[in-house]
Design a protein that fits this description.
Helix content is about 65%, strand content about 0%. Helix 1 packs parallel to helix 3 and helix 2 packs antiparallel against helix 3.
Length: about 100
């Protein structure tokens, strides 16, 4: 079920955050990518959960799934805030214009 994917993505984000203080600073980009991929997985999985819930008739089951989904969202917010607070690791800079060569 996509909800399981969302819960695991949340855990991956927590692990990435826990690794920051004990990881070589040269691996900061790896942790940033890990967090970004976890966020993408969470967003996609929760969107899929919501779409699937619309077709279900069991109100108790739907209520339980929505409760778990809210926990995913609530526990994700602090991790997301920490990840977006970091400056860009590789800031985008314009490339210099190529020099024109003239033929003589």
């Amino acid at each position: 079920m996509p909800l399981g994917v969302a819960e695991r993505a949340r855990e991956v984000a927590r692990i990435a955050e826990a690794l920051k203080p004990i990881t070589n600073p040269k691996m900061a980009s790896d942790l940033a990518v890990e967090a970004a991929l976890a966020q993408a997985a969470l967003i996609g999985a929760l969107a899929n959960v919501e779409i699937n819930l619309k077709d279900l008739k069991d109100a108790a089951f739907v209520g339980e799934v929505r409760k778990r989904r809210r926990r995913c969202n609530a526990s994700w917010a602090p991790v997301e805030a920490k990840n977006t607070a970091h400056p860009q690791i590789f800031p985008i800079r314009p490339s210099p214009a190529p020099k024109r060569r003239t033929r003589l």
